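Quiz preparation item.
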């Protein structure tokens, strides 16, 4: 078998990598152990959330598929953080787990240049420091110019429930043996991480009268910028809390927890801790929130968010039955922890290609991240860059002010990880620029130039841009007088005007929106009206640009200043060990990372501003 790009693993990173490479014209093969579980949601059947939703919108704007697959299989949609500014609004959707897999499988089957091979890769092959392909457990030799490893939690995966340990990459699925070792023998460093998943509950055994219903939203928001609809029945989620009795049950058996008896040695996710970790870390709290979420439109299986655990199964059950809503609970399977191998991401280039093996790309949890969205974003970039490498083109690398995906990859390759990396809005310096509403403005033209976004997507964005800019121009150039608007302003609960002003100045008031003002200003109502399928999204985008104009412009100025450092290429210019003007720690960190630019060097922990000034002076010389 001969291919341009070989993608190993059919999870969220692998599916995005394979479709991206194939859509760019590379002859691609996706190798997965089970064709019927591509895009499997191993943990929570949900996509998006704080900062993660921004990543999915970026994947969509770049021509990826996670957003469209999510919209097609959503059973609840919500826009989080609506009480805060638009910089941190984040879409989140609960999905039908089985239909999500089906939708991804259909997407793969419809993709030209893409083959699927069901098998397990056990070894990569190389020649003179460059990858040449892979071998499978069935003895198949697969030749490729580039290989993308997206193996998730399967590399030497080991699952834990109490003292029982079972090899596996996911419940009832085998671990991958040998692949880690075939990679590390080339000098790539591997370490271990841990994650976990909660008990799955039979909804027929739940007392919903003891829970609070959490409905979804039904407005125009979605993940894809292309026209899409939610076809499935929209379902509620439910909330309740743990209690002291449940905590006492868990505490009495804490010595049986693999996390606290020495059985698990690896590092788990800080921001998605197990219930036993919560009890130890927050010992003074008598309750923790729980979220009961449907797994699908037609199944009784439900996911108990907030109750990840690796305690013995009988302890998990006993603790749950102390909670009124679960006093008669029946479960499909207990929660479990899983340990797995990952590779040091500082040994990757910003393109996600290995610095040690040419043509080998790594994406997803094998880089030390956690989350479908982080995996999908990395997979998309790795697939794009694998295809570009095959065609002899320069790598595609996004800056920190261009996307959350750019922030994610820069953090991984510059700072590395010592715990599972999860994206938050606080990790980005340019949150006002990286909003969920404008990912198409930031990235779709890039994607079209790369060849991954098709002409219909670019045309859809250009049409949206033209209508949005017409609205903004109208609001900036059209004035209103106090006598024409003051009655409406009082009705809207804001201060009447003493002098005339533009509509844009009115929109800048926190209490007012374009839609409100259109009720009182007929010309504005006419200006925002159109036959576009995403009219509401266009109006919202225009309003955000008007309302936050000053903040956006200020952040652009700061980003432009940083670009000066990003434009100074330093890779290959220095032997850092010989630069005595730089601190010892700075020399060590610069040697280890070997940054591409002065900007990347400035973000390496341990490299001081004075070290950067020394490099800047030396570059001028």
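Solution:
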């Amino acid at each position: 078998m001969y291919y341009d790009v070989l993608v190993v693993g059919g999870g969220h990173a692998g599916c995005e990598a394979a479709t991206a490479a194939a859509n760019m014209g590379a002859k691609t093969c996706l190798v997965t152990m089970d064709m019927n579980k591509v895009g499997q949601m191993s943990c929570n059947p949900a996509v998006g959330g704080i900062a993660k939703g921004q990543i999915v919108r970026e994947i969509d704007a770049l021509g990826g598929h996670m957003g469209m697959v999510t919209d097609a299989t959503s059973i609840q949609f919500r826009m989080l953080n609506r009480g805060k500014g638009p910089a941190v609004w984040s879409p989140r959707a609960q999905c039908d787990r089985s239909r999500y897999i089906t939708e991804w499988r259909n997407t793969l089957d419809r993709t030209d240049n893409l083959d699927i091979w069901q098998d397990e890769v056990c070894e990569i092959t190389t020649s003179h420091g460059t990858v040449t392909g892979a071998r499978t457990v069935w003895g198949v030799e697969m030749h490729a110019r580039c290989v993308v490893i997206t193996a998730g939690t399967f590399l030497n995966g080991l699952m834990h429930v109490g003292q029982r340990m079972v090899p596996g990459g996911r419940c009832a699925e085998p671990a991958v043996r040998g692949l880690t070792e075939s990679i590390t023998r080339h000098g790539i460093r591997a370490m271990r991480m841990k994650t976990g998943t909660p008990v799955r509950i039979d909804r027929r055994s739940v007392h919903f009268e003891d829970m609070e219903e959490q409905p979804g939203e039904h407005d125009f928001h979605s993940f894809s910028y292309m026209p899409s609809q939610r076809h499935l029945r929209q379902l509620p989620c439910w909330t309740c809390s743990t209690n002291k009795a449940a905590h006492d049950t868990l505490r009495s058996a804490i010595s049986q927890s693999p996390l606290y008896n020495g059985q698990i040695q690896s590092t788990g996710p800080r921001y998605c801790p197990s219930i036993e970790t919560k009890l130890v870390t927050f010992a003074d709290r008598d309750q923790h929130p729980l979220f009961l979420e449907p797994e699908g439109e037609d199944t009784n299986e439900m996911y108990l968010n907030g109750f990840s655990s690796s305690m013995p199964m009988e302890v998990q059950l006993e603790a749950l039955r102390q909670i009124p809503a679960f006093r008669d609970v029946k479960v499909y399977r207990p929660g479990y922890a899983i340990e797995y191998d990952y590779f040091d991401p500082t040994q990757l280039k910003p393109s996600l290609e290995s610095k040690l093996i040419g043509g080998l790309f790594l994406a997803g949890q094998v880089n030390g991240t956690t989350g479908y969205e982080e995996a999908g974003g990395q997979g998309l970039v790795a697939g794009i860059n694998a295809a570009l490498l095959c065609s002899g083109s320069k790598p595609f690398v996004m800056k920190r002010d261009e996307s959350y995906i750019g922030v994610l990859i820069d953090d991984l390759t510059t700072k590395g990880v010592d715990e599972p990396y999860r994206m938050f809005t606080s990790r980005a310096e340019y949150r006002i620029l990286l909003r969920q509403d404008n990912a198409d403005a930031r990235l779709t033209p890039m994607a079209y130039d790369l060849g991954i976004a098709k002409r219909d997507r670019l045309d859809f964005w250009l049409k949206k841009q033209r209508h949005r800019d017409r609205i903004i121009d109208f609001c900036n150039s059209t004035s209103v007088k106090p006598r024409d608007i003051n009655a409406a302003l009082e009705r809207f609960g804001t201060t009447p005007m003493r002098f005339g002003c533009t509509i844009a100045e009115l929109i800048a008031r926190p209490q007012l929106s374009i839609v409100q003002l259109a009720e009182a200003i007929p010309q504005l109502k006419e200006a925002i009206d159109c036959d576009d399928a995403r009219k509401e999204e266009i109006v919202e985008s225009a309003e955000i640009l008007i309302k936050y104009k000053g903040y956006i412009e200020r952040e652009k100025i700061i980003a432009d200043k940083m670009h000066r450092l990003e434009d100074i290429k330093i890779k290959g210019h220095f032997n850092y060990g010989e630069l005595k003007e730089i601190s010892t720690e700075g020399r060590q960190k610069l040697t280890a990372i070997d940054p591409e630019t002065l900007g990347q060097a400035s973000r390496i922990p341990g490299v001081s501003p004075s070290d950067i000034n020394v490099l800047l002076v030396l570059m001028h010389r």
